[in-house]
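Protocol step 4 of 5: obtain the predicted structure for the target chain.
Materials: sequence only (see below). No template structures provided, no constraints applied. The aim of this step is simply to have a reference model before the mutagenesis design in step 5. Sequence pasted as it appears in the construct record:
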Amino acid sequence: MAKPKIRLTLIERKGPHGCHRGHRVGDTFDFDTQRGELCPMAMHVAFPYVDILRYGGAIPGQPEGTAVFCCPDADVINVFKIEKIEK
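Step 4 output (structure tokens):
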């Protein structure tokens, strides 16, 4: 059985400064093919959510197959949405 695809999308920026990696609201990343393009700090936070969603778990308080998280840079605070893409 193939693993479901995972898409990460930058949906909002709350901090006073732009992203140090140049990410902008609307940027989308395929976890399997583009994870190296995502900021390492954001990737560090995203990884546990990706594993939970990909292998059948759910995030409390989030719609099924999704998770929303923030990058840990207090000057930037990019908000990302993770979506499990069913075939």
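Step 4 remarks: Strands lie at 5-13, 28-30, 66-70, 78-85. The first helix runs from residue 31 to 34.
Proceed to step 5.
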